[in-house]
Amino acid sequence: MENVKRTIMITGGAGFIGSHVVRLFVNKYPGYHIINVDKLTYAGNLANLRDIENKPNYSFARIDICDFDAVLNLMKAEKVDGIIHLAAESHVDRSIKDPFTFARTNVLGTLSLLQAAKACWEPFDAEKPYRFYHISTDEVYGALGFDGTMFTEDRRYDPHSPYSASKASSDHFVRAFHDTYGLPTLVTNCSNNYGPYQFPEKLIPLFINNIRHRKPLPVYGKGENVRDWLYVEDHARAIDLIFHEGKIAETYNIGGFNEWKNIDLIKVLVRTVDRLLGRPEGADMDLITFVKDRAGHDLRYAIDSSKLKNELGWEPSLQFEEGIEKTVRWYLDNQDWLDNVTSGDYQNYYEQMYKNR
Ligand code: NAD
Ligand code: TYD
Predict the structure, then answer these.
(1) Is the beta carbon of 192 within 6 A of some atom in ligand 2?
(2) Domain 6-196+229-257+296-319 maps to which CATH number in 3.50.50.60, 3.40.50.720, 3.30.70.2740, 3.30.70.1230?
(3) Least C-beta-crowded within 10 Å: which of 6, 182, 308, 316?
(4) At what angle do helices 262-276 and 320-333 cross, to 10 degrees?
């Protein structure tokens, strides 16, 4: 596998999860040409890929996935034989304020990639079969109560936020392109990811940064909402496995079997940051501030990923305690990265690194 020559387009590779997927593929498959296609919105940061940006099997193309001609030209010129699609607007709070941007990128952008892939797709040899792999979220399934049920792959879609509605729509388009045109597609729905390089508007990096700087921690509602958390490198491993061994037209759920009530998770964060900074453990609990709830706030997500375990043998590798410790350490050790992102300076990185290449 490692020696097969392939050209894989990874969209959204400058974002949080995408950067981990790009890094894994570039390092693991020296025979593959990995093309990172990213528009570099506020969430895209090429500094996330500093350690691999000069590798000979990696290249970057600044393209908006909604730009059909640009996407098609690149796929044709580079003879792309696999697409792993992560580019998206991904933050629920932003989707509540600006749903159009979410419909544009998540729905129309996905459609533009599908159309381009359909135009370029040819039956490839068995060693490198064509794949259009769409990365989706558990949020398309809606909300669960506290009755212990979990989302399985056959769960009816019931999105509640403009973000999850746009992702649900894109999932339907991907499946429709398989059913209508035979495009070899895959879809996975994953739970909340955490780990290095996550934009600090999401709960875990935002709160780590706030605890460090002794700023308030805005907990929505009563903090009783439950999320299922997965370490981002475990997600990237699952993506690698499914891209290579998943069955065409299948859906796989990916999750950590690791549910946490927000308020309990936040207390773990406070204790961990305090301890690692040499403060008395729990000293910063008074930063916790209950604020107005998020509109349409889903109560509980829980993913049943036993299909992926039974069929392809994937399991999360990290215990949550270990993952959180690693994550908090990473943000505390990489204050420069956080400062760059919060100041907006990272947006000059492309100009410095790529514009005149
Ligand atoms: P992110 O917001 O960190 O990164 C998104 C990336 O997409 C950025 O690099 C951004 O520049 C790029 N992008 C946005 N609009 C674009 C456009 N029009 N054209 C080209 N590039 C564009 O997101 P993330 O958290 O890494 O999520 C990646 C994918 O995984 C998304 O599809 C998301 O729905 C899905 N997902 C995320 C989570 C999670 O917990 N973060 C969980 C499950 C699924
Ligand atoms: P988030 O990281 O935005 O992910 P998602 O909404 O996709 O699950 O939020 C995780 C949980 O934390 C969610 O229940 C909302 C809550 N939350 C807060 O209580 N305060 C905050 O400031 C943020 C960003 C999130």
Answers:
(1) yes
(2) 3.40.50.720
(3) 182
(4) 50
pLDDT in tens, 281-302: 999 999 999 999 999 999 999 9
Instruction: Please report, as a single letter, which amino acid is at residue 183.
Output: L
Please pick, among 58, 133, 163, 301, the residue that the annotation labels catalytic: 163
- The answer to whether residues 207 and 266 touch, using CB atoms and an 8 Å cutoff, is yes
Domain coordinates in residue numbering, the chain:
6-196+229-257+296-319
pLDDT of residue 159: 98
Tokens of 77: 């010129």
Ligand 2 atom 9, closest CA: 203
Q: Would you say residue 2 has pLDDT above 60?
A: no
Q: Is the CB of 262 under 6 A from ligand 2?
A: yes
Could you tell me the CA-to-CA distances from 45 to 20, 85, 233, 238, 349 in Å, in that order? 12, 17, 18, 23, 8
> Which of 167, 227, 235 is the best mutation target for the ligand 2 pocket, counting ligand atoms within 8 Å of the beta carbon and taking the most?
227
Pocket of ligand 2 contains residue 300 by CB under 6 Å: no
CA torsion 206-347-77-30 (nearest 10°) is -60
Q: What band does 355 get if pLDDT is binned at 50, 70 and 90?
A: low
Q: Three-state SS for 83?
A: strand
For ligand 2, is residue 219 a contact (CB within 6 Å)?
Answer: yes
